[in-house]
Every structure is written in structure tokens, then in C-alpha cells.
Design brief:
about 0% strand; about 230 residues
């Protein structure tokens, strides 16, 4: 019998540049959209106005549906509701999983996302839609949508954490379905209620997805480098 050959140590390769592609695509897409909004590019402005007017007519004509949208927008998917969910996740990471570093990372990601959103709102200073017969009201500048971005960041982080900690397929599929409905739903409610242009919502989704992907990629890269040292 030949002696067993010792196993060679696994080879480690640096992260592929292709992994950075989604981050760059999201960043460039958001910047392009922001520039088009800031310069009031006519085709985009016209499309925003056409969609907003159509939805507003429907909202005025269907007060019961509008009332449901207000509940979903102002309570179920409100940014503070999403932040409360993020706070619960942070507590679970600290007390149940004993991972204070990851808890701080998640909390910091949510905070940075909020600061980015407020910064871009101030920089672009886009007016919200104005209607003679409004069905809801909102304050501050329009672009990007804070509701859409906050839901995207929090739901994205929750899905990443479930996958990272080995949650079962049923839990992950359920969370994915709830997350997709929440992210898409909150954007639709903001447009239905006439407080955001469609491109505001798209901007919130793009910036939120960029924030999550950049944060989670940086964390995984840092953990990998730390484990090798």
C-alpha cells in the first residue's frame, strides 16, 4: 500500500473583481438617475408626471384603497417601523448570538444609509408633487424616497443575516417573500398617495440596494482577511 498523501492546504485567492460589479452598477445607476433628476431631464420629468397624475386620479376615486395605502405607508412600512425592526435585530445579535461587532456593523449601516438619504435630499432639493386635492402630505425634499430606501436597507440586511447564520430554507423563503412585498409595496404606496415621483422611489431602491451590498461585501471581506491573519 502506498502511504496516504497529505492533504494540501486550500488555496486562497483574492476576491474576484467581478464581485465589485454589482456595487458599481448600483452606484452608477443611482448617480445617473440623480443627475437626470437634478437637471430636470424632460423625458424623465414627463414620465414622472404622467404616472403620478394617473395614480392620483385613482387615489382620489378610490378612498378606501387610499386609506389602506396610508396605513401601510404610515405604520406598517414607515421608516421608524423599519428602524425598530433593525433595532430588534441588533439586540438579537448582541444577546442571543453574542456578536457585538456584527450588531454594531448592522446599526452603523442603517445610520449611514439614513445620512446618505438625507444628504442627497438636501443636495438635490427636489419638490414633491403638488395636488389641488391631496390625499396625503409629506415633508422635506422628494429625492430619494426615504421610505423606499429604509425598507430596502433593513430588509436586505435581514435577508443577508438569515443566510449568513444558516437559517432554514423555509424561513429564508418566507423572509424573502415578505421583504420583496415590503420593498416594492412601500414604493407603490408612496406613489399612490401622491407624495413621491416614481423616480424618487426608484432612487430610494437603488441607493438602498447599494448601501446593503457595499456594507455586506465589506464585512465579508474584512472577516475573511481577519481569519487569515
Amino acid at each position: 500500500m502506498h502511504p496516504a498523501r497529505p492533504e494540501s492546504p486550500p488555496r486562497t485567492t483574492p476576491p474576484s473583481p467581478a464581485r465589485r460589479t454589482p456595487v458599481l452598477v448600483l452606484a452608477s445607476s443611482f448617480v445617473l438617475l440623480m443627475v437626470l433628476v437634478a437637471v430636470r431631464w424632460h423625458p424623465l420629468t414627463t414620465l414622472d408626471q404622467d404616472i403620478a397624475r394617473s395614480l392620483h386620479r385613482e387615489a382620489v376615486a378610490a378612498p378606501d384603497v387610499t386609506h389602506v395605502n396610508r396605513i401601510l405607508s404610515d405604520w406598517v412600512w414607515d421608516p421608524w417601523t423599519m428602524r425598530a425592526l433593525a433595532a430588534v435585530v441588533v439586540v438579537v445579535l448582541v444577546w442571543r448570538l453574542r456578536n457585538a461587532v456584527l450588531a454594531v456593523w448592522v446599526g452603523a449601516t442603517c445610520l449611514v444609509g439614513t445620512l446618505l438619504q438625507q444628504g442627497f435630499k438636501a443636495a438635490v432639493d427636489r419638490p414633491r408633487p403638488v395636488w389641488p386635492d391631496p390625499v396625503d402630505s409629506a415633508h422635506y425634499a422628494a429625492f430619494p424616497s426615504g421610505h423606499a430606501m429604509t425598507a430596502t436597507v433593513v430588509c436586505g440586511l435581514v435577508l443577508w443575516l438569515l443566510r449568513r447564520h444558516g437559517a432554514g430554507p423555509t424561513v429564508r423563503r418566507t423572509a424573502l417573500a415578505v421583504g420583496v412585498v415590503s420593498v416594492l409595496g412601500v414604493g407603490l404606496t408612496r406613489m399612490w398617495l401622491g407624495v413621491h415621483w416614481p423616480s424618487d422611489v426608484l432612487g430610494g431602491w437603488l441607493l438602498g440596494a447599494f448601501t446593503v451590498l457595499l456594507s455586506t461585501t465589506a464585512y465579508e471581506k474584512w472577516r475573511t482577511a481577519d481569519s487569515r491573519s
